[in-house]
Design goal:
The chain is an all-alpha fold. The protein has one domain. 96% of the residues lie in helices and 0% in strands. The protein contains two helices and no strands.
Length: 145
């Protein structure tokens, strides 16, 4: 009976030791996973901040361009109005007005094209950090398979 008690005690100790080891391993894996999740979250937050910063720069550039274009357009309108006011004939008024309208339209089209290019570049720049994070996550999921 003493031998049976000793082997029961030994079995209990082995069972307890195995349980402790499994619990410790599980806790270590969980902590490592939480650490990795925390690291990924930090990188995701950094990507969002970089994206918002790039978008703000793009918006600032667009605002500056719009103000500059408005100012230039207003100045050109004043010059055109003064020039038209000094016209000697109705024919000259029509020619000056036509030339101004053509010039203003061409300038507007050119400015819209520049603004469109700025918007496209800004969107590309602001989405780049987010795209990098998505790509990293997809690669991580595929390597985990």
């Amino acid at each position: 009976m003493a031998k049976t008690a000793q082997s029961a005690d030994a079995a209990a100790e082995q069972f307890t030791a195995a349980g402790d080891k499994a619990f410790k391993t599980s806790v270590d894996k969980s902590l490592a996973a939480f650490g990795e999740i925390n690291g990924q979250s930090k990188k995701n937050l950094e990507a969002v901040v970089a994206s918002v910063t790039a978008a703000a720069r793009g918006a600032e550039t667009l605002g500056s361009r719009a103000i500059a274009y408005s100012r230039k357009s207003m100045e050109e309108q004043v010059v055109a109005a003064k020039t038209i006011a000094g016209a000697k004939s109705f024919q000259e008024v029509l020619e000056l007005q036509t030339a101004f309208a053509k010039s203003a339209f061409e300038g507007y089209v050119a400015e819209v094209t520049r603004m469109s290019e700025t918007v496209a570049a800004s969107v590309k720049e602001s989405m780049s950090p987010i795209n990098e994070r998505v790509t990293a996550m997809v690669e991580r999921v595929q390597t985990a398979r």
